[in-house]
Amino acid sequence: RAKSEGRNLYRFFEPAMDAIVQARRALEVDLDTALPRQEFDLDFQPIMNIASGEIIGAEALMRWHSPARGTVAPDAFIPVAEETGLIVPLGEWALRKACAAAASWPHGMRIAVNVSAVQLKSGGFARSVISALAFSGVPARQLELEITETVLMDESKTVLKTLRQLRDLGIRIALDDFGTGYSSLGYLRRFPVDKIKIDRSFIHDMGNRDTAAIVRTIIGLGNELGIVVTAEGVETEMQLDMLRDNGCEEAQGYLIGVPSKAADIQRLLKARALHSQTG
Ligand code: C2E
Ligand code: MG
Ligand code: MG
Ligand code: MG
Fold it and tell me: Where does the EAL domain start and stop, copy by copy (predicted)?
């Protein structure tokens, strides 16, 4: 009886499952042709030093302008690209494109690039980073690679070795979405990290007393360990004031600037650099 019920259920769900599988296939097919068809682009979001108010660089954020689907957000296609392996050439493209853009920024401006676990585990990642820097002429100390805890979770020797190698070159490593993973604190002990980026869900909820306490604690932890702390998703003056009062070094979010086209961010960075020289 249980068996026949199972069969009935299967018959009931099958069409829905088929639709999901097919939609997913279609997405994979579209994604696969998107790179040669040059449908990807990068936006850049400014990052501010809270104490000085200076813009110190920007983070590259990938966009997919699909003719069939419109603009697709990275959260919708990066996981698929990770599963199909496309993220390796796509990530390499992003790295080169980001470095090329940063090459025409004012002196010392940082460029932050997101890196997937799949990229770091694939052989040759360090080599592709070195090549992107050499090709663009951007100094290693101006490049920041943002990784998430999933990168560190399997504790593979390759990943640790690669991170050390990159850091020895002067490249900075930032731990993105900090606080949302499983054992954030342990990773800080075992892996070479220069910066932590507090996940925007904490910043959004900072009006809550407990959340505010967590944010203060993360900032204190960073200060104790000599790790720079950046707050993500800063949208209000009140949030920025709280972060400043608690000694948070950097902020990023719609209040400071939305992700913008390469030409616009270049103009912004140049205007700020000029301003800081003269004023
Ligand atoms: P992320 O690295 O944590 O990037 C920050 C995300 O927060 C971006 O979303 C940004 O647009 C958004 N954001 C910035 N300020 C605010 C704010 O004030 N309020 C709110 N509500 N959101 C804000 P986006 O561009 O959709 O990117 C989502 C995620 O996709 C990124 O999170 C990153 O994990 C991933 N991603 C983006 N580009 C790349 C890439 O080139 N490679 C890889 N592997 N992942 C990428
Ligand atoms: Mg990031
Ligand atoms: Mg983040
Ligand atoms: Mg994220």
Answer: 24-273
